[in-house]
Amino acid sequence: MPDMAPEDVRKRVGADLSDEEVIELMAAYAALARGIAAFPLPELHGVEPPMTSVAGPRNA
Amino acid sequence: MTTDLTQLDLADLAATIQAREVSPVDVVEAYLQRIDAVDPVLNTSIRVLTDSARAEARRAENEIANTSYRGPLHGVPVGVKDLFDVAGQATTFGSPILQDNIAPTDSTVVAKLREAGAVIIAKHNLHEFAFGVTSENPHFGVVRNPWDTSRVPGGSSGGTAAAVAASLCAAGIGSDTGASVRQPGAFCGVVGFKPTYGRVSRAGALPLAPGLDHAGPIGRSVLDVALVLDAIAGYDERDPATTAVPVPGYALDVLAHRGDLQGLRVGVPREYFFDIIEPDVDAAIRAAIRTLGDLGAMVEDISLPHVAHAQIAGNVIMSSEAANFHAGWLNSRRHEYGPDVLQRIRVGLLLNATEYLQAQAMRSLIQQDFRAAFRQVDIVVSATTPHIAPHIGRTSARGGPLNLVPRSISNRLTVPCNLTGMPAISVPCGFADGLPIGLQIMGPAFDDARVLQVAAAYEAATTWQRQPPTAATGRSS
C-alpha cells in the first residue's frame, strides 16, 4: 500500500519525529511500496521465497 | 626492481618476499610511510595498526628466514573494512555508537588471513553502518577518490577500494550487500570481487542485511584477488551460510587459463542493464564485450524478464533486515546516526512482513531468470555502475549526463547478484572524464573460478589495470 498516514509513521518509527522527517519517510516508503505494487503478483504467488540465497549443497 | 615496494602488485610482492629479496619488515615500513604521506588527504583508514603490523612483519620475517614460508600472503600488508573484527581493536562499523566495541577475537576472514601470514595493516573507513554507496562518513570523515579527490570512492567499502588504488595496502577485504565491493572497485579503478554467497565466512563481521551480505577481496589485479580468495574461502561453522563446496585454488586457475576464451558463451542482457547508463560508460562496456569476442568468446543476447525489479526487491530486503539489527538503537541513540542512513533504516520499520516476503519471492523469480540464462551462456556481462564517481557532496542531487541522483541508481546493476548469490567481479575497462569505469562479469553460483578466469583474460588483453591513479596522492608509476 503506497500511502501511509503521518500518524502511522510516528506510531511505527517514533512519536517525536518532525513533520519534515515524516514527510521524507512517507516519500521513501511510498517509492518502495509503489515498486512492490508493480511486481507481477500472480508470478510471485507461484514461487517460494528463497530463505537461503544459493541453490546447491550445503555440505557437499 | 622498483625501489618503492608499495607499487608492486601483491603477486609480484609475494615473489620478492619468497625469494628473500625483501623483508616483510621493509615492506610494512614502506606502506606505513606511504599511509603517513597520503592518507591525511584520502582518509581511507579509521585506524592504522602501526604497532601490531610491525610486530607481525617481524614475525613473518623470522618465519621466512627459518624456511617456514606460508604462501603468497606471507608478510604482505592487507587492510580490512572496519566491520571485520580484529582481536583487541575496535570494530566501529563507521559509527560512534561502536567506537568502544573492542573485538575479543578475530573475524574468520582475519583469522584466515593471519593463517596465511598476512599482516593486517589498517581498518578502513566506510559508509556509516555499510548502508550507502558513497563513503561520505559524517563521523570519520569523507573518503576521497585517488583519481580525483573531489569525487567519492564509492561505497560502502570506499576506504578499502581507495586504499588499494592508492597503494596503501597490497589488497583489502570489503563487504558487499548491494554493490559495496564492486562499485567502489569500479570507481577507484581496481578489481572488486563478490564471491558466491556462502563462499566466504561473515563470522565476526557486523551485518547490514544478512541475507544479502557477502565478504570479498579488493585488489589491483584479478590474480591478486584470487590469491586473497584462496586464503579466505571455505566452510566455517561460525557462519551457517557457508558451504563445504571444495575451494579449487583460484589463483592457479587464473594463471592456467587467462587469455583463452575459446568456446566461452557470454550473455548480454536485453533488459534493464543498459537502460539507464551514461553514454561513455555504455561505450566502454560495448568495447569490452567486443574484446571478449576478439578473445574467442561467443556473445549472445539473453533475457532476464524480472531483473527490472531487482533494485526495489534488494532495497526492501536491505532496509527491513537493517531495521532488525538496529532496532535497539533507533530510539536511544538515533542522534548518533547520519541522516541518510537513519532514513534508510527507519523505512525498514515501515515495511511490513508481506512486503518483505514479496521482495523475497521476487528474488526467487530473478534467480530463476539467471538459472535459465545460464543454460544458454557461461557468464553474463554488464557495467558495474551506470555512472562514474560523482562529486563529494553532490551524490543526493540530480546531475551528470543522465540528470539522475547518483545514490539512487548506483547499486542497480550490482544488486541482482546479491539477490541471487551469484559471483560477480568488477574489473577496470576504461575511463570517462579521467575516472575509471568497471566491467561486471557474473557467473553461476560456485563458478567463482570461471568468473575470475574471464576477468583475468580480459585484464590481460587490455591495459586499464596498469594505469595508476592520476591524482597527486594516488599510485605513482
Question: How would you concisely characterize the structure shown here?
Answer:
With 60 residues, chain A is an all-alpha fold.
Question: Which keywords apply here?
Answer:
heterodimer, A: 60 residues, mainly alpha, 3 helices, elongated, disordered C terminus, B: 477 residues, alpha/beta, 11-stranded mixed beta sheet, two-stranded antiparallel sheet, 13 strands
Protein architecture, described:
- The complex is a heterodimer of chains A (60) and B (477).
- Chain A contains three helices and no strands.
- Mean pLDDT of chain A is 84; it is low at 54-60.
- Chain A is mostly helical and 60 residues long.
- By secondary structure, chain B is an alpha/beta fold.
- In chain B, 39% of the residues lie in helices and 14% in strands.
- Chain B has helices spanning 10-18, 24-42, 50-65, 108-115, 158-165, 182-188, 222-232, 250-257, 279-294, 310-332, 339-350, 353-376, 406-409, 415-420, 448-461; strands at residues 45-48, 77-81, 119-124, 136-137, 141-142, 171-176, 191-194, 214-219, 265-269, 298-302, 379-383, 424-432, 435-442.
- In chain B, strand 2 (77-81), helix 4 (108-115) and strand 3 form a beta-alpha-beta unit.
- Chain B is globular, with a radius of gyration of 20 Å.
- The mean pLDDT of chain B is 95.
- Classes of the chains: A mainly alpha (60), B alpha/beta (477).
- Chain A binds chain B through residues 4, 9, 12-14, 21, 24-25, 28-29, 32-33, 35-36, 38-41, 43-45, 47-60, and chain B through 196-198, 211-212, 235, 241, 243-246, 306, 309, 311-313, 315-316, 319, 330-331, 334, 343-344, 346-347, 349-351, 355, 357-365, 367-368, 371, 419-421, 445-446.
